[in-house]
Automatic annotation (TrEMBL):
<feature type="transmembrane region" description="Helical">
    <location>
        <begin position="100"/>
        <end position="119"/>
    </location>
</feature>
<dbReference type="InterPro" id="IPR002781">
    <property type="entry name" value="TM_pro_TauE-like"/>
</dbReference>
<keyword id="KW-0813">Transport</keyword>
<protein>
    <recommendedName>
        <fullName>Probable membrane transporter protein</fullName>
    </recommendedName>
</protein>
<feature type="transmembrane region" description="Helical">
    <location>
        <begin position="131"/>
        <end position="150"/>
    </location>
</feature>
<feature type="transmembrane region" description="Helical">
    <location>
        <begin position="156"/>
        <end position="175"/>
    </location>
</feature>
<feature type="transmembrane region" description="Helical">
    <location>
        <begin position="76"/>
        <end position="94"/>
    </location>
</feature>
<dbReference type="InterPro" id="IPR052017">
    <property type="entry name" value="TSUP"/>
</dbReference>
<dbReference type="GO" id="GO:0005886">
    <property type="term" value="C:plasma membrane"/>
</dbReference>
<keyword id="KW-1003">Cell membrane</keyword>
<dbReference type="Pfam" id="PF01925">
    <property type="entry name" value="TauE"/>
</dbReference>
<comment type="similarity">
    <text>Belongs to the 4-toluene sulfonate uptake permease (TSUP) (TC 2.A.102) family.</text>
</comment>
<keyword id="KW-0472">Membrane</keyword>
<feature type="transmembrane region" description="Helical">
    <location>
        <begin position="187"/>
        <end position="209"/>
    </location>
</feature>
<keyword id="KW-0812">Transmembrane</keyword>
<keyword id="KW-1133">Transmembrane helix</keyword>
Length: 262
């Protein structure tokens, strides 16, 4: 596919904004995947190209958090491995089946996540008692990795919520460690989709440059402003993605709700 300079510039801008938001709260795919599809990129190729650009942006965020000492790589190694394995499975599945059925489940998960941050205990910057052990974290990340490879938008937000709600991390620490988990799932899906010949390389690399810059800005904001900004942004991105998914008349949950009202 060929794109004019105007389209490339707009997609690069979308990648910059998405990279900034993704580094702080996840959900950058809410911006980039619809932008790619609006430019005429088919759904699976849009997912694959988004994985290329977001892998660069997430790498930049990991570096920014790590150099400030916020990431314990030993602690997150096995969960990251779980996310990698799950994402490979998801990326294989998305090339073989219609992913639209997930669109009915995801809005419910996003609403639940927003509700946790709105009405649940306030997430602090300090660690609390973990409700589940490391083995459970690995299993959960296999599932979230599958979702990221299969569909994607909101995966980082789900990971952050899981680390805070079930594994006792402070919000900034959870955000930093989520970048490692997200990077593992992004790379796994990217490799799998590359093998399937789905990646648009020139477009993805142009967006990657902008995504790197946005991710550095987002990581800086997350570290300087902290949970005062991350918490409301998680809620906002969760609800925005919910609205977008439910606005699609083909969404199974939308169709069910419409049928209930008729």
């Amino acid at each position: 596919m060929e794109f004019g300079l105007d389209i490339l510039a707009l997609l690069a801008l979308a990648a910059f904004v998405a990279g900034t938001i993704d580094a702080m709260a996840g959900g950058g795919g809410l911006i980039t995947i619809p932008a790619l599809m609006a430019a005429g990129v088919p759904p699976v190729q849009a997912l694959a190209t988004n994985k290329l650009q977001s892998s660069f942006g997430t790498s930049s965020a990991v570096y920014a958090f790590a150099r400030r000492g916020w990431i314990d790589f030993r602690r997150i190694a096995w969960p990251a491995g779980g996310a990698f394995v799950g994402s490979v499975g998801g990326a294989l599945a998305v090339q073989a089946v219609d992913p639209s059925f997930l669109a009915g489940l995801v809005p419910l998960l996003l609403i639940a996540m927003a509700g946790y941050f709105l009405f649940g205990p306030k997430a602090s910057e300090t660690e609390t008692h973990a409700r589940l052990g490391e083995g459970a974290l690995v299993v959960v990340m296999v599932g979230l990795g599958f979702y990221d490879g299969f569909f994607g938008p909101g995966a980082g937000s789900f990971m952050t919520t899981t680390l805070v709600a079930l594994f006792g991390m402070g919000l900034v620490s959870a955000t930093a460690h989520t970048k490692c988990l997200n990077l593992a799932s992004n790379i796994a899906a990217l490799i799998t989709l590359m093998i399937g010949g789905q990646v648009l390389w020139l477009l993805g690399l142009v967006m990657a440059v902008a995504s790197i810059a946005g991710a550095r800005l987002g990581a800086h904001l997350a570290l300087t402003v902290g949970s005062r900004l991350i918490r409301p942004l998680l809620v906002t991105m969760s609800l925005a993605l919910t609205v977008k998914l439910l606005a699609d008349p083909d969404n199974p949950l939308t169709a069910w709700l419409r049928a209930m009202w008729i």
